[in-house]
Amino acid sequence: LLKLMATGAAGAALAAWAGREALAQTPRPGKLAALPSVPSKVPGATTIEKLTDYKDASTYNNFYEFGVDKSDPARNAHTLKTSPWTVEVEGLVNKPGKFAIEDLLKLSPQEERIYRLRCVEGWSMVIPWV
User: Fold this and answer.
1) Which tens digit of pLDDT belongs to each residue from 95-127?
2) What is the domain partition of the chain in residue ranges?
3) Contact 63, 73 (CB under 8 A)
């Protein structure tokens, strides 16, 4: 009976492992519009390295707020409401207040910077962020 149970458990685990490829082939949402930005003037914030493909950078991540599988955020991120957003400044400050994100974004041009991500899981990405 124990051998039968072990065989069943191993079979279930292998079936789930094999199904990961099918999940990886699931269609993803389309490409988002580019944000207006200027190249960064910060040393090291640009690169001549090959950038990671948009598809890979936008569909493989660990934002657990959107799910526990690495492909869940790509499917579920559209549920995040980014408007209206406010930032509240309070505490020991000279000018406390609430600021709309749109007003903060008008304070200076957005810069594009290159980030190099290296993970202990064995993957790495070179990604432009605004």
Assistant:
1) 999 999 999 989 988 888 888 888 888 888 898
2) 32-129
3) yes
